Amino acid sequence: MDEVRAGRPCPICEAPMYRRHCKYVCPQHGVIFDCADPFN
Fold first, then answer.
1. How far apart are CA 40 and CA 33, in angstroms?
2. Are 9 and 16 in contact (CB under 8 A)?
3. Is the pLDDT at 3 greater than 90, yes or no?
4. What angle is formed at CA 15 by the lines to CA 12 and CA 19, rounded to 5 degrees?
5. pLDDT per residue as tens digits for the range 17-35
6. Is 34 helix (H, G, I), strand (E, B) or coil?
């Protein structure tokens, strides 16, 4: 699986997010940002 620790915290719970393909995934809240988001 293409999953890498992204180094940025979840804006909801501050947990370290993972980058999976083109998405930032929080272990608690799921996908937070993806490539379509203008604030990446």
1. 7
2. yes
3. no
4. 100
5. 998 888 899 999 999 888 8
6. strand
Q: Show me where the domains of the chain are located.
A: 3-34
Residue holding tokens 């909801």?
12
- pTM, rounded to two decimals: 0.68
pLDDT for res 40: 52
| Burial of 19 from C-beta contacts in 10 A (0-12 / 13-18 / 19+) | middle
Q: How many CB atoms lie within 10 A of CB 28?
A: 12
Instruction: Say if CB 33 and CB 21 are below 8 A apart.
Output: no
Kindly state the helix (H) or strand (E) to which residue 18 belongs, with its residue range: strand 16-20
